[in-house]
Amino acid sequence: MKRKQGFTLVEILIVMVIAGIGLMTVAPKLAQNTILSDSTETFFQEIIDSHLKAATELNTQVFITGYKGSDTIQLFDGTRVSIPAGDVRTVHINEETATGAEFRIYFYTDGLFDQFRIEFRNKSELESYPALLQVVMK
């Protein structure tokens, strides 16, 4: 007598329950990473917009200063603000790796700014696209 091949309804239901439990444990972490990436993008987008406006109004280049191993950025007016993504690990400005503990990103009167890529300690990465006046979390 040949045995029928395939899965029973009970076996399929058990697999679906296990998969559902697995998704319930992963979903909150995915949501947290999405919120974190959105807030970091918004944070840097606001800095870009305000600093390009300041450079134009003052008719001089302005810059922000960051520090590797820190979660703060110093704005052109001296104000320090915290980066939502946390501590900066490495920075690349105009395709060059920033050396030393301090780095600067410049904003120019012609509406452009330095291209930068910031890697954070939590392994997330933010990249700027000056031609589009935009930043994107990766």
Automatic annotation (TrEMBL):
What InterPro entries does the entry give? N_methyl_site (IPR012902), Pilin-like (IPR045584)
What keyword terms does UniProt attach to this protein? Membrane, Transmembrane, Transmembrane helix
Give the source's domain of life in one word.
Bacteria
A Pfam family per the record: N_methyl
Q: Where are the transmembrane segments?
A: 7-27
The protein's name in its UniProt record: Uncharacterized protein
Q: Which organism is it from?
A: Denitrovibrio acetiphilus (strain DSM 12809 / NBRC 114555 / N2460)
